[in-house]
Design brief:
Length: 378
């Protein structure tokens, strides 16, 4: 299959879907389909992102070759090109470039970047599964680790006068939970906590797709409801086809006005509390999970963030943690704890105390769900 694509981010999803259907018709298994689609989206996004003004007049070409042994993707760009690392490592936390290369190398078996005078070709190859289950399982574990690394922030961006801390622990080697934080200005940032239904490599892939889709729409960062609406429309077909859905909470914070703009896609409520010790407020605007309906309308709620306050964004792994007696932690105990714990040590200290509380509750029982949360104090 060979397709031209106008050099515009809005065209990437359609091209990825065409490649998905082509590989599906040729009998590719689910894991191969998802790995190729995610790597293709990363490659196409880079081809568009780094294209100069003159290069944007030229189409990005996609070629997909499939035989019983392997799949090969070729993406032709018109950028200045760069030196492709043999083994990419995660970049510095302040730099977003390079993270996609690390992910592509984790997903695919072989990657090459061929530089030319007027164009460059990214070549991505992935072996199709054979009858060697042990080797396939080992490769799956490598992919899972690569995806998990691409989702983790080495360092959370901070704002002067405020402190943020995050925690993510998977019930298995890799899960579908993740959090993300990125600055939208000198005194503003976006916080995201999401949970893809299920465990293992497929939810982890969808978590990576969602994270990258949201970051590609930075112009909507101050409108969390529209950001979720656009992400839902982009991902609906793939999510419904895989019989998956994603819950997410997106919060934009403007430090100048001390206002939080909150949007929710069927996720746990955001908890906000001040230093009074009164009951924490739960904020959860209406919105169904991503992947349920392509026309879901999301709402935003704006709340004040008084001085010496704290917010908690979390996944249901916290409230569904089960002790040895089979009793869940539940949302009310968490909300009551959040109200009385105070802000004496800032976000990092609150993170430590919350992890200790979860461990004490769980004691020796097996972790039955991923546990992820974000805390901001100020």
């Amino acid at each position: 299959m060979r397709l031209p694509m106008a050099c515009d981010f809005r065209n990437v999803r359609g091209v990825a879907q065409a490649a998905h259907h082509f590989l599906l018709e040729h009998g590719c298994d689910e894991d191969t389909l998802m790995a190729c689609e995610l790597a293709l989206v990363e490659g196409c996004n880079n081809a568009i992102k780094y294209a100069p003004a003159a290069g944007r007049l030229e189409p990005v070409w996609l070629e997909v070759l499939c035989d019983p042994a392997q799949v090969e993707l070729r993406i032709t760009d018109h950028t200045a090109g760069f030196d492709w690392p043999e083994h990419a490592t995660l970049p510095d936390p302040s730099s977003e470039s390079g993270r996609g290369i690390c992910l592509m190398q984790s997903l695919m078996d072989r990657t090459q970047y061929l530089r030319g005078a007027d164009e460059n070709v990214l070549v991505l190859r992935k072996r199709r599964p054979t009858d060697a289950p042990a080797r396939v399982e080992t490769r799956d574990r490598e992919i899972e680790r690569g995806i998990q690394q691409s989702l983790l922030l080495r360092e959370i961006p901070q704002l002067p006068g405020f402190e943020l801390a995050g925690f993510c622990r998977s019930a298995q080697e890799v899960g579908g939970d993740f959090y993300d934080v990125w600055k939208t200005g000198e005194r503003s940032l976006l916080m995201i906590v999401a949970d893809v239904m299920g465990k293992g490599i497929l939810p982890a892939m969808f978590a990576a797709i969602l994270r990258n889709a949201l970051r590609a729409m930075r112009d909507l960062a101050d409108d969390p409801a529209m950001l979720l609406t656009r992400a839902n429309r982009l991902m609906f077909e793939e999510l419904s086809g895989a019989d998956l859905f994603i819950t997410a909470q997106v919060v934009h914070f403007d430090a100048a006005t001390r206002r939080l703009t909150v949007a929710n896609a069927g996720h746990c409520p955001m908890l906000i509390a001040d230093g009074s010790g009164e009951r924490a407020r739960a904020v959860s605007p209406d919105g169904m999970p991503l992947g349920i309906s392509p026309d879901t309308a999301f709402e935003s709620e704006v709340v004040e963030f008084p001085e010496r306050s704290r917010v908690l964004l979390y996944t249901d792994g916290l409230t569904e943690a089960v002790n040895v007696g089979g009793d869940p932690c539940g949302p009310e105990p968490l909300q009551e704890w959040w109200a009385r714990v105070g802000t004496r040590g800032g976000a990092r200290e609150l993170k430590r105390e919350l992890v200790e509380m979860l461990e004490e509750f769980r004691t020796k029982s097996v972790l039955n769900d991923d546990q992820t949360f974000l805390i901001m104090t100020g």
